[in-house]
Amino acid sequence: MTPDDRLDPFDRFAVQRPRGADFHCRDLSVRIRPCPVVVASGGVPDWSFTPVPAKPHGPARRSRGMYPVRHPMPRGRVLVLTGGKVSSRQSSRPWHLSRVRTAALAMSLRRRLGPERPIHHVHYRFRGWNSPELDALNDADRVLRELTAHDDGRPTYLVGHSMGARVAAHLAAIHDIAGIVALAPWWPDHDTDFISAGCRVLVMHGTADRWTDPESARRQVVRAQHRGLDATWTAVPDAGHFMLHRPFDWHRRTAEFIADTDDRRYV
After folding, report:
1. Contact 99/91 with Cβ under 8 angstroms?
2. What pLDDT, in 10s, does the model give residues 52-81?
3. Maximum distance among all alpha carbons in the chain?
4. Is residue 14 part of a domain?
5. Does residue 212 belong to any structural domain of this protein?
6. Which of 38, 134, 192, 208 is most buried (CB neighbours < 10 A)?
7. Domain count within the chain
8. How many whole angstroms separate alpha carbon 48 and alpha carbon 230?
């Protein structure tokens, strides 16, 4: 008597291979196929699962009614950091040109990067860096801590113009930052030394900048490269400090850098 002869008609039907019974695991090189094995006591079929190599050409076939379970990694958050003055206790207002410039940048990044990457435009209480109190740094640090209080696994990217780039470099010393875009950075004192080795850096500087020193920024990028940072310095020909010359080039390159750095996490 064969094992099938010991089963009633219902059990005999159950051990037959159903249509579309391929199951797929996360490794697309392996297909899981149910193989019925009859247990001696009671004749109850035991559905074991045996890995079977997938066909060498093309992806594994999706079975009828089966859909792959996806757990996408969350896209990064972006903090846009406004420029300012070396020292000023004047309250920061939305109509100040430093805020207007970075507000336009934040709007452009929202459009270019899409809704899956939240953009946060940081507003300082005062207009100045204000050493030794470091008001701008403390304000940005408080915003970032609030955003990461309930960590959802998002990486953080910082985009800073002028003084905002200095805020970004110092934030990288106390937070896990995935990437920094420094636009015409005010880095007077080896500020790139604060950036950890795991952070990618893009520096864009206009060759006609008279407010901050593009050559000093370039030397600091080289210094960071010698420490092992993935850092790049890009000259913007004939551009000044305020990103008024071909502003959308600044916006486009910033968005491309963030998207590329974010996509590398999936490789």
Report:
1. no
2. 444 444 444 444 444 444 446 789 999 999
3. 95
4. no
5. yes
6. 192
7. 1
8. 49
